[in-house]
Amino acid sequence: MKHFNFHQTSEIIFGTGRIAEAGEIVLKYGRRCLMVTTPDAPLQPLYERVKKILEDKGIVVAHFDAVIPNPTTETSSAGSKMARDHRADVILGVGGGSSMDAAKAIAVEATHEGSAWDYLFYKEPAPDPSKVLPVIAITTTSGTGSQVTQVSVITNSAERDKSALYNPVIFPKVAIVDPELMLTLPASVTAPTGFDVFCHAFESLINPGTGAYVTLLAKEAIRLVIDNLPKVLNNGSDLAAREQMAWADTMAGLCIASAGVTLPHGMGMAVGGLYTHVAHGEALAILYPACTRFTADAAIEQYAFMARTINPELNDTPDKEAAGHAYTEIVKFLKSVGLFKSLKEVNMPEDEIKTLAKQSMVLPDYKGNPRVATYNEMIELVKEAYYQS
C-alpha cells in the first residue's frame, strides 16, 4: 500500500438544524465575534438569525458584510480593521467559499503586520500560530470545502493575481455544515459550486499526495456529486439530495486538505485572477474537458473511474478503453448541468491566451498533475478551452 499522510483538525458539526448550536460553539472560543459575510440580500434573514443565536449566548457581534466573490486584499484589509476596532477574539465566516476564505485571511491580518497577501504560502515569515484568531465556518453552499481546509484564496486586483494562504493555523476550529441552509440556493450557484466538489475529489485522486484514506473519501464524493447534483438542480428543495451534496463537499474538502489539487485548479485560479467576473466553479467547468483530454492517458485507472461513474454502461470495458471515454463523458455531464461553455463565452480577450497560459504556471498545482504541461502545451490547453463548442 502507498504511504500516505492524512491530517484534519476541524471539528465537523454536520446535519440539518445544527445551525442552532452556533452560539454555544462560538462561545468556546470568544465573546467578541466578527461575523464575515457577503452583502447578498437573499441571505440577510440567515445573517440576522445567526446574529440572534450568538447574541442570545451573550456574544457581542460586529458584522462585516462586504465580502465579494473572489475576495480581494482590499476585502481582507477592511475586515481586519473592523476586527481590530471591535476587539474581536473569534472570527465567524458565514456563506460560501468567499466568506469563509475572507474570514481566514482576516483572522491572520487582524493580528499581524502588513496584509494577508504578505502571508501567502510561499512567503516568509509564516503566520504566528499564537496570534491567529480562531475561525468558525458555517457553509451555505456545497461548495468549496473551505470549512475544513487550511486554505484561504485571495485576489490581488492590482497585480491581477489570485493566490492563497496555506497553513494549518487557519484550519477552522469548527465547521458547521447544515444542509437546510442550502435549500434556497439558486441553480446559478448550485451548479458551479457543485462541480467544484467533483473537481476537488477527482484531483485529489490523481494528485501524488493521495493515499488510501483520500481515495476512499474522493471516490464516494465523486459518486455523490454525479448522482445528486442533477437532482438539486432539478429540485432545489430536495433536502435528501442537498444532504448528500453537503456530505460530498465536506469529504472533498478533507481530500484537498491532505492531497491537494492539480492542473485544472491551477489554471482555474489563473482565470479567476485575470477575469474576476468568472466564478471559480465556472472556470473549472470550462477547463475540465481540455485537461481531461490532456491527462487521461497518464492516469488511466482514475479516468476510467470517472467515465464509469458518469456512464455505468462502461463498467465492463477495460480501463484503457473506459479512460478513453472520459473526455466525452465529462462533456456530457457538464452539458447536463448547464456548465459547458468556453473561455470565449465568458469574454476572455483572445489576445490574452498566452497571458493566461503563463499565469497558469505561477501556482505549483499543475506540477502535481500526472502529466505536467510545458508552456507550449499550456498554450494549447488554453486555446482548446477558448474555442471549444
Labels describing this entry:
six-stranded parallel β-sheet; Rossmann fold; Dehydroquinate synthase-like, alpha domain; 389 residues; 14 helices; 47% helix; two-stranded antiparallel ribbon
Overview of this protein structure:
- The protein is an alpha/beta fold.
- Helices cover 47% and strands 11% of the residues.
- It folds into 2 domains: 11-182, 3-Layer(aba) Sandwich (Rossmann fold); 262-389, Dehydroquinate synthase-like, alpha domain (Up-down Bundle), CATH 1.20.1090.10.
- The chain is built from 14 helices and 8 strands.
- The strands form 2 sheets. A 6-stranded parallel sheet has the order 1-8-5-4-2-3, with helices on both faces. A two-stranded antiparallel ribbon has the order 6-7.
Secondary-structure element order, N to C? EHEHEHEHEEEEHHHHHHHHHH
Number of domains: 2
Count of individual beta strands: 8
pLDDT < 50 stretches = none
User: What is the radius of gyration?
Assistant: 20 Å
Distance between the termini: 42 Å
* Quaternary status: single chain
